[in-house]
From TrEMBL:
<dbReference type="InterPro" id="IPR018198">
    <property type="entry name" value="ATP_PRibTrfase_CS"/>
</dbReference>
<protein>
    <recommendedName>
        <fullName>ATP phosphoribosyltransferase</fullName>
        <ecNumber>2.4.2.17</ecNumber>
    </recommendedName>
</protein>
<keyword id="KW-0808">Transferase</keyword>
<comment type="pathway">
    <text>Amino-acid biosynthesis; L-histidine biosynthesis; L-histidine from 5-phospho-alpha-D-ribose 1-diphosphate: step 1/9.</text>
</comment>
<keyword id="KW-0460">Magnesium</keyword>
<comment type="similarity">
    <text>Belongs to the ATP phosphoribosyltransferase family. Long subfamily.</text>
</comment>
<feature type="domain" description="ATP phosphoribosyltransferase catalytic">
    <location>
        <begin position="49"/>
        <end position="201"/>
    </location>
</feature>
<keyword id="KW-0368">Histidine biosynthesis</keyword>
<keyword id="KW-0547">Nucleotide-binding</keyword>
<keyword id="KW-0028">Amino-acid biosynthesis</keyword>
<dbReference type="InterPro" id="IPR011322">
    <property type="entry name" value="N-reg_PII-like_a/b"/>
</dbReference>
<dbReference type="InterPro" id="IPR015867">
    <property type="entry name" value="N-reg_PII/ATP_PRibTrfase_C"/>
</dbReference>
<comment type="function">
    <text>Catalyzes the condensation of ATP and 5-phosphoribose 1-diphosphate to form N'-(5'-phosphoribosyl)-ATP (PR-ATP). Has a crucial role in the pathway because the rate of histidine biosynthesis seems to be controlled primarily by regulation of HisG enzymatic activity.</text>
</comment>
<dbReference type="Pfam" id="PF08029">
    <property type="entry name" value="HisG_C"/>
</dbReference>
<dbReference type="InterPro" id="IPR013115">
    <property type="entry name" value="HisG_C"/>
</dbReference>
<keyword id="KW-0963">Cytoplasm</keyword>
<dbReference type="InterPro" id="IPR013820">
    <property type="entry name" value="ATP_PRibTrfase_cat"/>
</dbReference>
Amino acid sequence: MLRIAIPNKGTLSQPASQMLRDAGYRQRTDPKDLICRDEPNNVEFFYLRPRDIATYVGTGDLDLGITGRDLLVDSGVAAEEVLDLAFGGATFRWAAPPGTITSAAEVGGRRIATAYPGVVERYLAEHDLKADVVRLDGAVENAVRLGVADLIADVVETGATLRQAGLVTLGDPLLKSSAIIIGRPGHAPAGVSQLVRRLQGVLVARSYVMLAYDVPANLLENATALTPGIESPTVSPLHREGWVAVQAMVQRADVHHVMDELYELGARAILVTDIANCRL
Ligand SMILES: Nc1ncnc2c1ncn2[C@@H]1O[C@H](COP(=O)(O)OP(=O)(O)OP(=O)(O)O)[C@@H](O)[C@H]1O
Ligand SMILES: O=P(O)(O)OC[C@H]1O[C@H](OP(=O)(O)OP(=O)(O)O)[C@H](O)[C@@H]1O
Ligand SMILES: [Mg+2]
């Protein structure tokens, strides 16, 4: 049975379970449950602190885990990224009061508050800098105001917490994070490739829609240039002479723009439908 670690709380917890449900796996119904067995799929899910997940996967006690890229880096565990799950996106950044520290080169010699000392120390080592890393558990943005540190290094999503604390970011992000599946290098037990394919199906279904429309046959080339699909669009004859029906997958982010262009070209009955899941 495949054994997989899932975040039990925090930002990544709900979306991780939802993604697995969308891929056809059973998930816990009570948020206090720590284990959920999915017999038909031969998978057992273990609900763990996202920060601990790399440790379980790295030791080989669990086969796979869902965690954040920043948490994996912070752990220092030699687990590998198997698939980017495209949720839980955030950057990991330096921040300080405006006008105090203005470039990343100036972080050397300072007191840096963070809940991710592993990420910060990796950066300092790579840039040949020395600094005093103050490890905190959370609410790191308060550290400068309270005099514990000169700057912070923390997760930034909307930037609202930084603004509220009167801090501004400086320099480039130390890293760009999102939820990922991690595994142990060289360890690919039965069921892993099926799980990855299923999740890839969910990712595609989330980023594409199915577009269907009718168009005069003499405009087909122009229309399909707008909707080339993945392999190629499906074209079917219509009962009405001189018209065809076209179906193609289109990037969700582009669909309104593509519909406008198709309508202007002469296409009609342009319909968009969600894709529940797919295997490409
Ligand atoms: N707005 C956000 N705040 C915190 N973490 C976020 C955010 N958006 C994405 N993440 C990602 O979530 C992971 C951190 O999750 P974790 O559960 O440890 O902290 P949390 O969501 O802040 O919850 P808690 O503060 O209750 O521990 C990291 O990979 C981080 O990049
Ligand atoms: O850029 P934003 O959208 O404001 O999000 C980022 C903030 O959210 C998280 O804090 P959280 O509320 O989880 O508290 P914590 O610091 O105690 O973990 C994170 O640690 C940042 O402080
Ligand atoms: Mg937090």
